[in-house]
Structures are given as C-alpha cells and as structure tokens.
Amino acid sequence: MTTTQLVQQIKKKKSFLCIGLDVDLNKIPKHLLKEDDPIFAFNKAIIDATNHLCVAYKPNTAFYEAYGIKGWQALEKTINYLNEKHPEIFTIADAKRGDIGNTSTMYAKAFFEDLAFDSVTVAPYMGKDSVEPFLAFENKHTILLALTSNQGAFDFQTKNIEGKEVYKHVLETSKSWKNSENLMYVVGATKAEFLADIRKIIPNSFLLVPGVGAQGGNLQDVCKYGMSDTIGLLINSSRGIIYASNDTDFVEAAAKKSEELQKQMEAILS
Ligand SMILES: O=c1ccn([C@@H]2O[C@H](COP(=O)(O)O)[C@@H](O)[C@H]2O)c(=O)[nH]1
C-alpha cells in the first residue's frame, strides 16, 4: 500500500487508529481456548468487529513467536485474512528487526514477501546497511524506532551526542539513506512533548505512535504536536481495545473502545 492510499483511507474512515493484535492466551476469553486455533479465532473476531473503525492492524510478532509453530501459523492466517478480506487496511509486523545486510534482506523477505505485510518495525542501532535492505522493497514501509514509549528510551535515545540527542541523529541520518521515502518512524505517545521538535526534522513522514491507553499516552497531545499536513499519524492501542473484556462480550467491548477512539479522531480531523 502507498502512503497516498493510506491517507485516502484515513480521510474516508475519519480514523487513524491502528489496533494492536498482541494475543496472550492467558487473557483471551476462555471459551475460545476450545477452538483449533484460538489465536486466529480471537484475531478474526476482533478484525470482523473493528475493521470499519481503524486503518491499520499491528500484530506484535513476540506474541506469536512465544507459541512456536502454532503461533507463527496463526500470524500467517491473520495476515492472509487481512489481505484477502480487507486489502484497504495497512498492516504492520511489529518485529523490531535489523542485522547485517544479508540477514536484514532475509528478514525483509520474511515480512514483505512470505507474510506480505505492508510494513515492519526496525531498530536503527546497527545503522544504514542494516536498514537499507528493508527500504529496497517497493511500496513497503520500514518503521524505524526513533523515540520509544518506554522509560528506557531515556537510557540512550535522548542522550546528547555531538550536540544532538541520539533520536535526532536517527531521524536526520536516516533521511539520507537510499529509498528513505519508504521510512516511517515510531514515536511513543508518552513522549508527546518531543513531537514538535521531531516534526521540524521530519515534517511529512508517517509516525506510528504506540502508548495511548494502557501506557498512559494522551491522544489529544499527540495530535496537537504530531499531526502533519497529511495527518501523518497512526495511533496504536493494543491491550486497551482487545482486552476491553475477557468474557463472551469481548467483541462488543473491543468495538466500543475502538469507536470511542475513532470518534475522538473524527473530532480532531474536523
Ligand atoms: O515504543 C514502542 C514501540 C512499540 N510498542 C509496542 O506497541 C504495543 C503497545 O501496546 P499497548 O497494549 O497499547 O500498550 C505493544 O505491541 C508494544 O510492544 C510500544 O508500546 N512502544
């Protein structure tokens, strides 16, 4: 999917909501555990109930890898279901990969070719030659960790090196990489006060913003400082939506939470 198509979807649905599919078998409703594939059954139910309210889904691959081959199969079924039933929806493999060049190429093939995601999250720590292999894929997007939502972001990302914080080095340097138009960035909702500075460096890039809801980030603050001329935001909520109820009404509860966020986004867009 191109960013132009993504912006069209945001305008059409009046939503820039991304729903995180972080499936934990200890948290899903007990009756689903009887299904052949409880993870996919859960995801399918959530997707069927919420797809009209969001523009993106983000399975975090850790929640699938933790269940071995069955987890990976559930991830494959989920992305195939999304691509077949909802090709208009932007898909994010939150895998936080990145390695020496030939290894990064294999990661990129895994997520862009085999699993056919639109995007993958990548750690910038190993630099240009670890990220460019992802950028080489046409109409695929590499979402680089810039300023993350966790407390540990202050350990390295905000440290001043040669007169500039590390996350600013990441933003500025990555702009010079080959096919940098395929870059998006992760900025945590808990770091809204940094967004005005971030927008000075990357005024038009899309930002994936996790951390509203369970982590305490505020949607209005993120939009006030982080919105670009073409919106440029995908606001993620995972636990706040998918575990709104752990009972038989989980689908209705997830749709209700999604609608609450979508309505706030609609108000902001208008
Ligand atoms: O800086 C980051 C980068 C990624 N994440 C991921 O986003 C979701 C957030 O889940 P919630 O339940 O809405 O808190 C999860 O997959 C994280 O691994 C992040 O939170 N912060």
From TrEMBL:
The keyword Ribonucleoprotein does not apply. Keywords: Decarboxylase, Lyase, Pyrimidine biosynthesis. GO terms for molecular function: orotidine-5'-phosphate decarboxylase activity. It comes from the Bacteria. InterPro entries: Aldolase_TIM (IPR013785), OMPdecase_type-2 (IPR011995), OMPdeCOase_dom (IPR001754), RibuloseP-bd_barrel (IPR011060). GO terms for biological process: 'de novo' pyrimidine nucleobase biosynthetic process; 'de novo' UMP biosynthetic process. Pathway: Pyrimidine metabolism; UMP biosynthesis via de novo pathway; UMP from orotate: step 2/2. The active site is at K96. Residues 16-254 form the Orotidine 5'-phosphate decarboxylase domain. CDD domains: OMP_decarboxylase_like. It catalyses: orotidine 5'-phosphate + H(+) = UMP + CO2. Transmembrane segments: none annotated. PANTHER family: OROTIDINE 5'-PHOSPHATE DECARBOXYLASE. Belongs to the OMP decarboxylase family. Type 2 subfamily. This is Orotidine 5'-phosphate decarboxylase. It comes from Algibacter marinivivus. The lineage of its organism: Bacteria, Pseudomonadati, Bacteroidota, Flavobacteriia, Flavobacteriales. The gene is pyrF.
